Amino acid sequence: MSMLRNCLLLLSLFSLAACQSTTTANDILTNEQTLRLTIPHEIWRLDASLAVDTNETLILNQVAEGLMRLDQNNRPIPAMAEKVSVSADQTVYTFQLRNALWQDGAPVTAYDFARAWKRTLHPKTDSPNAYLFYPIVNAQSYHQGEVSADKVGITVVDEETLQVRLSQPTRNFLTLLALTPFLPQREFTQPPNANRSTLLNLKLNGPFVILDVSADGTIVLKKNERYWDQEQVKLDYIIFYVSNHPTQTINLYNADKIDITRIAREFAQAYANTPEFHSIQLWTTQYIRFNSKNKFFQNKKIRQAISLAIDREQLVSVLKSQAQPAGGLIPPSMKGFRSAFREEAPLPPDKANLGKARALLQEGMQELRISQPPSALVMLSYEDDRMQLAVELKKQLKQVLGLNLLLNTTSRAEKYRLEKRGEFDLTLSDWVATYPDAYTLLETFTSGHPANTGGYKDKPYDETLKRAANSPQVQKQVKYLAQAEKFLIVEDHAAIPLYYVNDTTLIKQRVKGHVRHPFGPSYSFKWAYIEEP
């Protein structure tokens, strides 16, 4: 009965949100070209410089547009840029902007890009996305406070022309420009206590704009009539409801109240053989990252002991997931030189070896001259269905090694803040590839990388990654990346891969033209439409 009351309450809240949203809300809900889906929490701020949450980038990708956009095949295509010219040495990119408008009718100019990008790089912005701009001349130096903004290789030639100079040829640079950190911006002050008016006051240039935000966090988008390519946009409205309860969300889907939903692992098997079930292997891996400041984890044998104490098959079983146990950081779906990276550089997952794990723990503690492990170790985790993962890991490491994990389960944003402050001993991580290159996953362990919250440092590893980045030949780049990954995982045990991540969703068959990206923003709805019955 309590579950039924919860579902009825949520449905009534959705109905109330629809009534309170705008005077046209009823029309929206009955409009044939309305797409409905859920997000797990409220969003009151959309700041391209700061956004790391996947739900923020999802919405940003619908309401804003950069120089490039990912197409239906995950390739970058011109968006705000009408023409792209590249110098012979592939270090100078010149973008001719098309005649595009912001939603209020003001023209989108090269200044909107230059100001936004330099804001992201400004040290005081403290952007977690700043490193993506580092291929640009002096971008890293400016971000680290070593040079002034005018030294950065971002030049406004005129209002319609933006020129970008790179330090060296950068594979996938145009793909980078399709990501949300590279969006143009009109607003640069979104208060920490942002609310619905913060979103409603944003000036946007994408296929959709924000029509309304209700008190419960429901966000309603409408087609942007000033969008340059509006003829390609078929949807009139998109509604994002807030729901973080798996049972409630699946009931909403079954009641035909929403069209797309992530399906929790406990329900996945029941729907796996239905035509509405979709599974995609994302370009990410779930793994454990260590805090290198903790002396206990500075010992390689102890890190290896933890890896050998984990039963990955049991983890996947507990999660009731279609995921597969991982041996490396690079997922099987990522490309190598001629075939999949994992085929060219196989790394089988560690098999649980409890005896060896216990022996390595003892050897490691002897080297540290301690007789017992720390009384408690703080592990950061997510407040979604991966809580089960954290609980199972806690159980396994207690049973096998006698380690006492204290679980701190929190939001992704708060988890990142805790990691930056070093308030953890080990943490569950799932860094998503920002562009289609294995380098983007391995670089997060290089010295000084903003995602290297554990503070891992190894000079030879850094040098191998540099050789990969500087290699003009893909074959050599893959070779260096494979060497780096093998050292990181097999030899140094700096991270413990757990499983390759699959995303499972239910999508009504009437929804057509939507694009699910394995990296970057999760969806593009620019080409989506509702097929009439």
Walk me through this protein's architecture.
By secondary structure, the protein is an alpha+beta fold. It has 3 domains: 160 residues, Periplasmic binding protein-like II (D-Maltodextrin-Binding Protein, domain 2); 117 residues, Alpha-Beta Complex (Dipeptide-binding Protein, domain 1); 223 residues, Dipeptide-binding Protein, Domain 3 (Dipeptide-binding Protein, domain 3, Roll). The protein contains 18 helices and 21 strands. Strands 11, 12, 13, 14, 15, 16 and 17 form a 7-stranded mixed beta sheet that branches. Strands 1-10-9-8 form a 4-stranded mixed beta sheet. Strand 8 and strand 9 form a beta hairpin. Helix 1 crosses helix 8, helix 10 packs antiparallel against helix 13 and helix 17 runs antiparallel to helix 18. The longest helix is centred in the first third of the chain and has 20 residues. This is Oligopeptide transport system substrate-binding protein. One of its GO terms (cellular component) is cell envelope. It is found in: Cell envelope. Pfam families: SBP_bac_5.
Could you outline the blueprint of secondary structure elements for this entry?
Layout (H helix, E strand, L loop, with lengths): L1 H20 L3 H6 L3 E6 L14 H10 L4 E3 L5 E3 L2 E6 L5 E6 L12 H12 L17 H5 L10 E5 L2 E5 L7 H4 L19 H5 L7 E6 L5 E5 L13 E6 L3 H9 L5 E3 L2 H7 L5 E14 L9 H10 L2 H8 L4 E2 L15 H4 L9 H15 L8 E6 L4 H15 L3 E6 L1 H9 L5 E4 L9 H4 L16 H12 L3 H18 L3 E13 L3 E2 L2 E2 L6 E2 L4 E2 L3
Parallel strand pairs: 1-10, 14-15, 14-16
Antiparallel strand pairs: 2-3, 4-5, 5-7, 6-7, 8-9, 9-10, 11-17, 12-16, 12-17, 13-17, 18-21, 19-20
Helix pairs in contact: 1-8, 10-13, 17-18
Subcellular location: Cell envelope
Organism: Laceyella tengchongensis
Protein name: Oligopeptide transport system substrate-binding protein
